[in-house]
Amino acid sequence: MFSAIANAFRVPDLRKKILFTLAILVLYRIGAHIPVPGVDAAAIQATLENLPALGMLNLFSGDALARMSVFSLGVMPYITAGIIMQLLQAAIPALEALSKEGESGQRKITQYTRYLTIGIATIEAVGFIGTVFSGAVAMSTLPRWITVGVIIITLVAGTSLIMWLAELITQRGIGNGMSLLIFVGIVSRFPTALAQALMSGTGAWSYVLTAIIIASILLVIMAVIYIDRGQRRIPVNYAKRVVGRRVMGGSSTYIPLKVNGANVVPIIFASAFLSIPSQLALLIKAEWFQNFANAVAQGPINWILTFILIVFFSYFYTALVFNPIDLADNLRQQGGFIPGVRPGGQTIKYIETVMNRIVLPGALFLGIIAIGTSVLFAATNNPLIMQFGGTSILIMVGVALETMTQIESQLKMRHYDGFFK
């Protein structure tokens, strides 16, 4: 692994991308510590302790919400806008046609997503300051409405800056920008969570329990990597054909279908979807809805919904990015066929069947890991499990593997050894 890292820094273009990505991540963490003007930090902390429904929002923001920094809204508005646009593409034919227009269509959809992100961020900022954190607005010589307006504008501007930083990483750096921002936000909480875990118990037991938890986390990481690298290979043969004076084809290869083809997207989408009641609770102050938002944010209801949504989004995202019809058509045009399967409709049906069969175990694995550690935290009440539960581990490992895969492809293109053997 260390040789692969050294090789990555030997390639000038790849080195610039890695350093650019690291610089953006450092800027993001700096912004997460810059406080919003006109708020009382102590009142923010007290409010968060009384509202567990905001825990997921604080996790994805990397504790920026607890500090009420300029990046307090975090990546959730952008993720929520992305989910809405994905659903709308499946429901509105015009948007679906636009997504198939290539780069120009994707630029328009990206622009719509940006506008929707600003709208969602504005609603969340108004909800935060107008309801939940209304008592956290600091006293000043200026009229209250001016202070509140400055806070809202700052929060929305922070979300816009996060969106821009994420897109910069995706376009000019290494990895998916939004996923990496989530990754850094989660990892940044590890030292604090470790210290809290060591101090949560008394005597040597707290150290033993923390060591056991860390060992369990490492085992879960190994299992996630094993499933993520798993593939179902469909054999493909190419018939011989004469082109001019050359004989083409006659070779054999395979189609690699990943067991976890959706990667961390189902986890992020499920977490974002379950955070919607918490965001609505900022505007709806009814006691029954507050209780509903808290129930969805943690406990048995959260576990059940998380499991169901992970399975659903695994199939949903796979259906969006993987088209068996296009794959079968490409095989037919290139003279390829799956042994024992007739070209055309039977090939499409065969690929769909195989894909559905391998998506299910991958989705079930993600769901079990995601809720398993949450159940364990409910039993032990250990802060380290709370901060680095199944959802956090899956996101961190998935993002790390995705980024390493991109670096790997860049190294292979330049004839260097990569991370994976």
Fold and architecture overview:
It is a single chain. This protein starts with a helix and ends in an 8-residue tail after the last helix. It has 421 residues and is mainly alpha-helical. The longest helix has 36 residues, at 345-380. It has one domain: Preprotein translocase SecY subunit (Orthogonal Bundle), CATH 1.10.3370. It is built from 20 helices and 5 strands. Helix content is 72%, strand content 5%. It has helices at 2-10, 12-31, 41-50, 55-60, 64-67, 76-91, 93-99, 103-132, 144-172, 177-187, 190-200, 204-229, 265-274, 276-280, 287-297, 300-321, 324-333, 345-380, 383-387, 390-413, and strands spanning 231-238, 241-243, 246-248, 252-258, 336-337.
Task: Note the overall shape.
Answer: globular
- Which fold name corresponds to the CATH topology? Preprotein translocase SecY subunit
Number of strands: 5
**What structural class do the secondary elements suggest?**
mainly alpha
CATH architecture: Orthogonal Bundle
Name of the CATH first level: Mainly Alpha
Strand order of the largest sheet: 4-1-5
Number of helices: 20
Mean pLDDT: 78
Which sequence of SSEs, written as H and E, runs from N to C?
Answer: HHHHHHHHHHHHEEEEHHHHHEHHH
| Strand fraction | 5-15%
Topology:
Layout: H1 2-10, H2 12-31, H3 41-50, H4 55-60, H5 64-67, H6 76-91, H7 93-99, H8 103-132, H9 144-172, H10 177-187, H11 190-200, H12 204-229, E1 231-238, E2 241-243, E3 246-248, E4 252-258, H13 265-274, H14 276-280, H15 287-297, H16 300-321, H17 324-333, E5 336-337, H18 345-380, H19 383-387, H20 390-413
Antiparallel strand pairs: 1-4, 1-5, 2-3
Helix pairs in contact: 2-9, 2-10, 6-7, 6-8, 6-13, 7-8, 8-9, 9-10, 10-20, 12-18, 12-20, 13-16, 16-18, 17-18, 18-20
